[in-house]
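During the no-cost extension, the postdoctoral fellow (Dr. R.K.) reprocessed legacy sequence entries with the updated structure-token encoder. One reprocessed record is reproduced below for audit purposes.
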Amino acid sequence: MRTVLLLVAGPLAAMIGIMPWQTTAAQQLRTVTVALYADAISLDPENTNDNLTYSIEREVYDGLVGISPDLKFVPELATSWDVSPDARVYTFHLRRGVTFQDGTPFNAQAVKINFDRARGPANKLIRRNLYENIASIDAVDDWTVRFMLAKPFGAMMYNFSHAASRIISPAAIAKGEQYIARNPVGTGPFKFVRWNPGQDITLERSGGYWQRGQPEVDRIVFKPVTEDASRVAMLLSGDAQFAFAVPGVEADAVSRAPGVSLLKRWSDYAFYVALNNHRAPFDKPAVRQALNYAVDKTAIVQVVLRGYGRPLDAPAAPGIVGYAPVQAHGWPYDVAKAKALLAEAGYPNGFAATLAEGTDTETQRVGEAVQQMLARVGVSVRLQPMEAGILSALWAAPSDRSQTEMSLFGWAPATLDADWGLRPLFATESWPPALFNIGFYSDPQVDALLAAGLATANQAARNKDYGDVLHLIWRDAPSIFLYNSESLAGERTSITGAVLQPDGKIDVRRVRLTAH
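Re-encoded structure tokens follow.
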């Protein structure tokens, strides 16, 4: 989740800088420094809901499976797997000879302990919803683990590839959740060293990593750098070797700088202004439709994002499995139509509302643009910037205690599947605190189609269900549908191997130095 915050789960950005080679043994470590747009919230993958934190955790942990850029499942701690025809039994054959960074052996029992913890209601972990359909887990032998689902779930392999499905050392789990949140222990290429909140998180090479030849640097240091211009300045000066995200307004400067490359990749982020459908005036469809007409998405893309985006043409972004466009070029910009709909709904003179948003520069510029556009139809918007943790808490309140009116919000499904691109945001069962339907939207037909899409592994049938869902949500306009963004990063030529992922994460586990 990205808090247009952007809720990337927070505002989005990361930087990587290389420490100069020094003369002392301690300083000769091949070090890469990653400067982020915000600090991590928790380093427990099963209790994480922001992509910035997942980007850090990725270096420490492995999962059973990963997912490639072309949406294929790839082996990690599982070397192979079998899925029953009815999508209810998932069997994984595990990699042998792997140990956790604390020396604990990796085996089927470790997998069972992790997923039993993740799905346990008493633990109240943020990502429990990914695993609540698991009825039982059986460690068949040391190298085979079998998951039995309560009902068919066609998207379960995508859930197993989710960033929350990383495997934690059972010895760390035994020390309690507060320990895990600050002391991650996995099987990944880097081991955790320390976390100085607000300053840095340091990881170092984990000896004996199962993937031969990895990692290729000795240390990664993550540093929070919240201000866009400061991040880019560090990149251009050479104090940082990788900067993510580069805001669109700085893209030309980065692309022209010597020794620096601008990296681009279409994300699967969809950005919205979520509207509280249970609070007047947003409980009226005509009002919500009017606000969609009143916001010029093309102008936001061109002016704020400098062209590195495109208006949403559906309630989910292109690039996810099950996506289909609903309206070419997005909801049209029509001030006259917006005013007419507001008058029809009983608000000829508009109304006042508060828009909660994140604190990063680009997010606030988007908020200001929305504020100015809505003012043209008589809607007075007060902007309320909030830090990621505070904003997440605001959005977690149930409907009877929710204080939200409008929220600038972004979502990228880490599973890359339409189920996770839609159900957490638009299903009735996903009202907070269960998931992230922070607009409290509800439609029985949408709920039924979302359930049908999960009840089969037949992708053609799933695509039909999700296509119908996209049209229904677009019609109801529970949010102002804004844009799909293009991810931008700056990388100095002295490093290679950092990866931009479509869901708003970075992966630097394979970063390497090309010069020093």
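The mean pLDDT is 90. Residues 459-476 form the longest helix (18 residues). The remaining legacy entries will be reprocessed before the final report is submitted.
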